[in-house]
């Protein structure tokens, strides 16, 4: 079985993002970029399927600028066998990414595509679901366990108030939640080995996909600064302030 993992290059989760002065987006110049954390979990899941004998080939795919190749190298160092870079400098919205991934799926014919449940930059949480709809494949989102037997995947999903276990006929789409696994530490020998693994580069035009944005960002603003709190002397003062100043009770 071939498994595809979708990986996105995003601002590192430790970076405190700053909104650009002209409010058109966040400033990503001179900022550390890394693989989206949920995508590391996706690559780790795909790699474990290979190690347990369920997958024969793991291909990592990214859509993005030249620098996204670094993210693919990380995926190869975790354990992917090959990588596909759909290279573009265009702004990519989830529908465009889903269309590009659909084209990649049609080329590669994987039985399972694993994506993150959300990218921590746009927080859209849409790409996996859109891809499943475009391919007309079953989907299991927010997976905390994946078990493959023959042509069926049993996936445990994190849902409000508990866990849901569902069975999907392959081919299928799975999106990862935090508890699915803990991605391995990427070692230097594996980084060296990754340099020799094949990376194919194509463009959206090669795949005949139109990536024109459908949504327009009107403006991006910082969240309101929280006012400093005050310490009140006693319970009666607290109730009085809540009633008469904050007017919340
Ligand atoms: P989103 O819908 O933007 O929150 O992204 C959900 C998931 O879709 C991510 O965790 C990735 O697995 C995948 N994805 C989103 N954007 C890209 C991209 N540019 N290249 C590859 N995969 C992506």
The main sheet orders its strands as 9-8-7-10-6-1-4-5-11
CATH superfamily: HUPs
Strand content: 25-35%
Q: What is the CA-atom radius of gyration, in angstroms? A: 21 Å
Q: State the helicity in percent bands.
A: 25-40%
For the record, the CATH architecture stands as: 3-Layer(aba) Sandwich
Question: How many helical stretches?
Answer: 6
Give the beta-strand count.
Answer: 11
Q: Provide the low-confidence segments as ranges.
A: none
Largest sheet: 9 strands, mixed
Heterogens:
adenosine monophosphate
Mean pLDDT: 95
Class by alpha and beta content: alpha/beta
Can you tell me the number of structural domains? Answer: 1
- Element order, helices and strands? EEEHEHEHEHEEEEHEH
Shape: globular
Distance between the termini: 59 Å
> CATH fold name, please?
Rossmann fold
For the record, what CATH class applies?
Alpha Beta
Main attributes?
alpha/beta, 11 strands, 6 helices, 9-stranded mixed β-sheet, Rossmann fold, binds adenosine monophosphate
């Amino acid at each position: 079985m071939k498994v595809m993992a979708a990986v996105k290059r995003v601002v590192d989760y430790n970076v405190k993002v700053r909104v650009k002065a002209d409010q058109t987006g966040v400033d990503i110049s001179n900022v550390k970029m890394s693989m989206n954390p949920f995508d590391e979990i996706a690559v780790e899941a795909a790699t474990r399927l290979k190690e347990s004998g369920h997958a024969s080939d793991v291909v990592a795919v990214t859509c993005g600028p030249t620098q996204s190749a670094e993210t693919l190298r990380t995926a190869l160092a975790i354990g992917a066998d090959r990588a596909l870079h759909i290279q573009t400098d265009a702004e990519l919205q989830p529908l465009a990414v889903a269309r590009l991934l659909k084209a990649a799926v049609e080329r590669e014919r994987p039985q399972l595509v694993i994506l993150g449940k959300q990218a921590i930059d746009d927080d859209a949480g849409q790409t996996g679901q859109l891809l499943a709809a475009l391919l007309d494949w079953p989907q299991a989102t927010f997976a905390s366990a994946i078990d493959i037997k023959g042509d069926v995947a049993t996936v445990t999903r994190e849902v409000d108030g508990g866990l849901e276990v569902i069975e999907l006929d392959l081919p299928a789409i799975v999106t990862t939640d935090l508890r699915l696994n803990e991605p391995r530490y990427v070692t230097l020998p594996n980084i060296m080995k990754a340099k020799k693994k094949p990376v194919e580069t194509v463009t959206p035009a090669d795949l005949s996909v139109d990536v024109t944005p459908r949504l327009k960002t009107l403006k991006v603003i910082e969240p309101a600064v929280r006012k400093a709190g005050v310490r009140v002397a006693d319970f009666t003062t607290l109730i009085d302030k809540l009633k008469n100043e904050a007017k919340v009770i």
